[in-house]
Design goal:
By secondary structure, this protein is α/β, with parallel strands linked by helices. Helix content is about 45%, strand content about 10%. α1 packs parallel to α2, α2 runs parallel beside α3 and α11 (about 255-265) packs across α12. The longest helix is centred in the N-terminal third of the chain and has 15 residues, at about 55-70.
Length: about 300
């Protein structure tokens, strides 16, 4: 994997106080935890960052805070998704002006859109935004996928469309993206959105992951990146098996966001597991499940 760009970027949760505001003290502790753990970058206001639950003013405050802490140290991407086109442009340009390395936008949800409509949407965004734009494919949330041929057209026609987060449980779609887009844009960054797809992604020629378990175990995911860069397949296999066991965290409850937060609060990474309404709170039984999953991982003393 020599000369291959490989990253593990954390889609950071957004810590909140019990009565709802963003908990900036926990944000600071979280970002330091991630940087100390060796991740290659942080994405704020992604899906696990609950972008849908904050006002424009709150989003700008969080982006500004993250930029002050992160920029120049590791990569910073800001999620700027909205169902209002002009709000995306406004927030994207704000994030880029504050020092973000790029912005990430999921396509419109609620209605299904044709390939041509999706192309035209991102075509307009790429022309309107003054900086790097990452696509975000998440069919479980939008009801449709960004087709590989659409991504290829966008990559060919817009130098500032620089990558994609492909959040699909299987690897077929990601593999097709790599096959179609890399020949025309070798620099185009193709990330998987599920932690357990990291190894397959990089083996196929992709660029790694933007995935949530790194909120909890950044040292584990950064070790995975080092193993991939060094061609340490034995180490990659060992970490794959650890990640596979930790994926049980996602199954504790749905949506998974408040349960990731609960696990982080249990580890002292953030102060409160508060999530946006109507996200459920973990029950005592679910907290016990999380505790057992983490204890099972940590007693193996991989690190």
């Amino acid at each position: 994997m020599k000369d291959q760009t490989i990253h593990y970027i954390t889609p950071a949760v957004t810590p909140m106080l019990p009565d709802g505001p963003i908990d900036f003290a926990s944000c600071e502790r979280l970002y330091r935890h991630l940087m100390d753990g060796g991740v290659d970058g942080i994405l704020v206001l992604g899906s696990i960052g609950e972008f849908f639950g904050f006002t424009m003013e709150q989003k700008k405050a969080l982006i500004s805070f993250a930029a002050d802490m992160v920029k120049g140290k590791i990569r910073l991407i800001a999620g700027t998704t909205s169902m209002v086109f002009d709000e995306i442009v406004e927030l994207s340009d704000y994030a880029l002006e504050r020092g973000a390395d790029g912005v990430m936008v999921i396509p419109p949800y609620y209605f299904h859109f044709t390939d041509e409509s999706v192309y035209e949407y991102y075509d307009r965004l790429a022309q309107a935004i003054h900086g790097n734009l990452y696509l975000y494919n998440f069919p479980d949330r939008t009801g449709y996928e960004i087709a590989p041929q659409v991504v290829r057209r966008l990559a060919e026609n817009h130098a500032n469309i620089v990558g994609i987060k492909d959040t699909i449980s299987g690897v077929d779609h990601t593999r097709e993206l790599i096959k179609q887009v890399k020949p025309v844009r070798p620099d185009f960054l193709i990330y998987s959105g599920f932690d357990d797809n990291f190894a397959h992604n990089v083996m196929c020629g992709g660029n790694g992951c933007i995935s949530g378990l790194s909120n909890l175990y950044p040292e584990l995911t950064s070790a995975w990146v080092r193993a991939a860069r060094d061609g340490r397949f034995d180490r990659m296999q060992e970490i794959q098996q650890a990640i596979d066991r930790l994926m049980d965290i996602y199954a504790v409850g749905k949506p998974f966001v408040p349960f990731i937060k609960e696990a982080m609060a249990m580890k002292g990474i953030i102060d409160h597991p508060t999530a946006t309404r109507p996200m459920p709170a973990a029950s005592p039984e679910q907290r016990e499940q999380l505790k057992k999953i983490m204890e099972r991982h940590e007693c193996r003393q991989l690190f």
